[in-house]
Amino acid sequence: MSDLPQITVIARDGATSVLQQSAGQESLMQLLFDSDQGVEAACGGCASCATCHVYIAEDWVPRLPPREQVEDLLLTYSEHFDKSRSRLSCQIAMKPELHGLILEIAPEE
């Protein structure tokens, strides 16, 4: 197995893609943005806009680090906030342990 994880992404239209991290993609947001998955990433990964909002598959939620306070604040005020599954993809570092992660792109605000 490669050290570069493969991620399953469910797009807003329900289409499923399997993406593999490329060199230089340090966050999940970069992978999604570079792969044209409908993630705007307006702030460039500074955790100040929530345009990279995703829903993590329930069985993956406990395997990720918990949301930091700034992520919680942004997501709580999102129209499509899901208390257990919502994450900012810019705050999830790409690591080999993410291999097999399943996520859904959240609806646009």
SSE sequence, one letter per element: EEHEHEE
| Proportion of residues in helical segments | 10-25%
Shape: globular
What would CATH call the class?
Alpha Beta
The chain-level mean pLDDT equals 95
Indicate the low-confidence ranges by residue numbers.
Answer: none
**Radius of gyration using CA atoms only:** 13 Å
Q: In DSSP terms, counting alpha (H) and pi (I) runs of 4 or more, how many helices?
A: 2
Strand arrangement across the biggest beta sheet = 2-1-5-3-4
- What name goes with the CATH superfamily? Beta-grasp domain
What separation lies between the terminal Cα atoms? 37 Å
Q: What structural category arises from helix and sheet content? A: alpha+beta
Number of domains: 1
> What is the multimeric organization of the chains shown?
single chain
Largest sheet: 5 strands, mixed
Instruction: Tell me the number of strands.
Output: 5
CATH topology: Ubiquitin-like (UB roll)
CATH architecture: Roll
Produce the secondary structure layout.
Elements lengths: L5 E5 L5 E5 L7 H7 L18 E4 L12 H8 L9 E3 L13 E4 L4
